[in-house]
Amino acid sequence: MVSNRSLGVSRALLRKKFRTGMTFRNYRDREAVFSQGDPADSVFYIESGTVKLTAITARKKAIIAILPRGNFFGEGCLAGQSLRICTARSIGQSQVIRLQKDRMLRTLKRDHPFAMVFVGYLLSRVARVEEDLIDQFFNFSERRLARVLLLFARITTESKSDSALKVSQSTLAEMVGTTRPRVSKFMNEFKKKGLVSYNGGLRVNSALVTAFLENRPLSVNKGRPSKTAPTFGATTVEPRRNGGKK
Fold this sequence. Notes:
The protein is of the alpha+beta class.
């Protein structure tokens, strides 16, 4: 859910390449950069802060990604998306650069070094999505929560912020794909073990969470695929334990 690739592209570099095809804006906490269903006519780059991508249907709301500084988003417009398929909203204060779609396409065609950087970013995002899907389908919700916490800790470290992380258990539940009571139960257990603490917000002990993940074996073999692995279109069932609870 949380992107771990940071490009570190500067505003000066983008200004040099895009000139009038670029605009810059500060966003307040929870302010929308764009909303689901809006025209998809630009790509965005996070110069500072964090942006959350969510998708909503009549029944469900899903968090697609949490993106820290140094990430692009909204790049679906380059692949033919005419309307936004998700909502992008700032988490806390953020500074976001908007790059016009047409100018972005021209730059990618003419500027090979920039195109290679952007392609590398996209490949990293694809790999991350695959990891998230494997995590979601095959691993226990307790492990998925620990992985999300570890990635949130990276955001705090990269932002060099001294303040505690402001994230609700409802948000964690949406990211993990389980219920809020289950997240509350796991978080209480993590707190007793020293993995997390609450002091004006959430603080994560990265070393202990990493050790926790290393001591919890994956439910899916990352080596050779299993002979019984489900094929495309097959129904997948999350591993169950403790009497069948997720």
